[in-house]
Known about the structure:
The protein is α/β, with parallel strands linked by helices. The protein has twelve helices and eight strands.
Amino acid sequence: MNKAKRKAVIAGNWKMNKTAAEAAELISALIPEVAGAGCDVVVCTPFTDLPIAVSKTAGTNIAVGAQNVHFEKSGAFTGEISADMLTELGVQYVIIGHSERRQYFGETDITVNKRLKAALAAGLKVILCVGESLEQHQHGVTAELVAMQTKIALGGVSAEELKNVIIAYEPIWAIGTGLTATAEQAEEVCAVIRRVIASLYSEADAEAFTIQYGGSMNAKNADELLAQPDVDGGLIGGASLKAPDFAAIVRAASK
Ligand code: PEP
């Protein structure tokens, strides 16, 4: 598999952090740090920060993403946001199926699939998160679990639509814990995901498909993780909240 055929994507997942004023400040600091990056750069902000993020990043190499989207176009879904609402703002990406959504907000593989299809139909690019819990990791079922999550999430998605999907492999035990999967562990599971893509679509589709690692990636460990043949980028939580830290990861992915 030829890694050079794929564009690296570094995406920040700000989670429930930063007011609109703080978002403007962080983006202002980020713009000069990542200008000219050799990878795609995305910031996924809280919904309330999206308008300021889109206007601040206009004309830069930073794309803006949301952290969730509902699968219906409109209606009685209090507290939810539709894909059309995001695209009208100028949002380009959306994270779907993050483990925190699965764990705290009842997200299932089926709702992940519905959200993913709605997002793609509206023209959004999707960062689909998959990954195992510590218990599942210890039981040795990571490969099966990640394959199942991937297959269900991509149900009904065409090869053409797949071009707008990235998968982020995020072992839950490594998210926000300071524990990182070793580069070998990250590579092993990212390679499993690529094989699943090949089995669902084709070898060529799998070769062109971007897979990120996420879970306590930082300036120190990014080089080793991103050097793995099947790790094409990163989904970054904590380290995306400080411009120099995030920029260091962007530089690692640009090599
Ligand atoms: C995440 O939440 O997607 C994530 C990877 O978080 P962190 O980098 O903080 O582990």
